[in-house]
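Sequence in, structure out.
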Amino acid sequence: MCIGFLWLPWSDSLGRGKPYGSHLLARSLSCIVCPRLVMSQRAAVQEPDSTPDSTSDSAPDSTEVSSRSRESRSHPHPHGLVSPQRAPWTTNAKPTDFDALLPHVGEYGRYQKLLIWLVCLPACIPCGFHAFNQLFMAGTPEHWCRVPELEGVSSLSIEYLKRISIPPAARSSGYSQCEMYDTDYNKLAEKILQEDANVTGFPDASWSTVPCQHGWVYNLTQVSSSIVIDFDLVCSREIFPTVGLCVLNVGGIIGVYLFGVISDRWGRRPSFFLCLSVELVAGVVTGWCPNFNAWLCCRFFVGLTIPAIYQIPFIIAIELVGPNYRAFVTVMTCLYYTFGLLLLAGVAYFVRNWVHLCYATALPFFLYGGYWWFLPESPRWLLSRDRLEEATRVLKVLARINGKSLPHEYYEELKRILKIYLYFFAIVGGSLPCAFAAASGFQEKLIAQQMEAQRARERKIHHIHSYEQHNAGFLDLFRTPNMRKKTLLITLNWFANETAYVGLSYYGPAMGSDEYMSFFLAGLVEIPSYLCCWFLMEEWGRRWPLCASMIVGGTAAIFTVVMDQDAVVETLVLYLIAKFAIAASFLIIYPFAGELYPTEVRGKGIGFSGYIGGLGVCIIPFVNFLGRHNLVLPLIIMGILTVIGGICGLWLPETLHEKLPQTIEDGEAFGKEQRFGDCPCFEHRGWNESATESSTLLKELRPEDPGPNAANEEGRSSAGEGRAADAHPRPGEAGEPGEDGVRRQSSYRAMLQRRVMVRQPTVEFPVDPATGAIRLSHW
């Protein structure tokens, strides 16, 4: 038996199609070592054990479970298998439920802290670097048409050369940047040389103008290096840098799905390092590009990794901690991302050459290759893929560093599953992949039989629906009126938030008198925004903070239209207020959407809303391009969009302290009973109820075990009931709250009951119902 179990790691690899040795030798060895197991499990296949009674009204208590566990160890299964009674630490259909294991190995212990703070969070910094470093590559200096015939006249000053060859600008003071006079400059140069530059009568009013014929001359005083200078991206080509931003974001839409599929199918760890490699290599090669088309191609490959390079380590961190720490990890991830933006402003300030900036924002992160020896695969993903040996190794390290140990029942479940695989490896004919496919099918069938009773108990106790009850599709988001309304409103808010946030971030360098300081301040205001938002989400809920921040941010952006062109500081302050508010709403929209979409269609709903929001990110660079001629026009457009989204969001229901919808039917009913003005902050204050009454209601709601004097207490309560009724004020008398007061007390009681009886995860994610793992492809 021991030798058979030592063979199991090989058998698992063989079952996945890897050529580790001869399967004939393995079958022979297994039959020789454990013939009793083989014969007993043949009987197990022919006579499956009866499942537990699925109609039980209540789940067994801990004493009963412990006794059953001891019985299963002292009286083994008659067919050589572990008893089908479920292990007491599991709560889902999977026998290896990571959420149930976390309390045993630590939900946020030393292991998680070291991995999150030293690996996962720093891994988010490259996303901000490569998403916004282009803003400092594409600076446009003052320029004018090049006239090579006049360059040989050394006695001409630049100002005089522009005066005789460049027409005045039509919309501003100064000279045109894209036109020149159409005249014979060779004759003009000869005349200047003959008369010793004392030429008068030029330019002639009769001269016509033509676009620049020989390129441009650039004033390198303010901008010494950029792709605009090297690739001549001015005049008719001035929109090309904006096209580069659009291509970057188009790559992001494709890449977030591509790397999401890789992460879901082959694991978080290989997906992260592949994504990091593509980003860094493409980032370095960007500096080698000889022309704009090559540069644009590299930007597309960089865009493939944004925001996937941010999401993958974030998901690894989320999957390592318990549900109560998800909101904390989410906010910390946002803060690290913002720290990357602040760091980028400093790097760009000191590195003014765009080629060197490409190297400075890519080469240092090659050190992240050392994470290969420290970043483990997500144990939640490993368990969802039944890679038990690898998951056990990670869990052992996690438990050891946290000063804990895996529960004994985990090893019992692991042993039972390994026995099943060993049996099929030994006696099932055909190729090994077919044998292990049969083993997996048998395992799933046996697990399904074992878990049916427990799922029935959970549905009755917790009033939840199984994922398998209804195979909901994408169209179910629009079949019923309430779900259709919420889907459209969520998508509109997602589109408005993502478009405005990215647009304001792109527009930062254009505000103020110093592009580096403006970008730095635009990132700095996000830090207090995230911290305030974290507090408000738990006290005021999701709906009111979301809508209020969108309306405030949009109004601040619209107010820039009343500012004078010289009011640079005032315009910058309004911009920063808008960025502060939109950053808060952008943080809220994702968890709010995850809580509003029912569990059955959460992945499809978030994927749909997220991809529509991604279209806005592709459009917003062209909106910002309008600011070349009118600085506040993009701010007005983004402000109107966010105000509309904020007002429409008021028709979404609140999710704080509410039981979240599981099925499409739950989603259709969710929020119908809520009123427009409902806000958890008012409920939390108890509608002017006193703290004593709050404590009393909580005591009434808390289930208590009646003591031995319960009967006497009940008798005294009955005896004094009449006196209490006489002493109680009648309606309209002093102390009676009246009809409105009763309604307020009922509302407060309902709120307290929801708080006590309903415990929801802090952040909801799209989850694969078959495996329980987070789906990155539905981000």
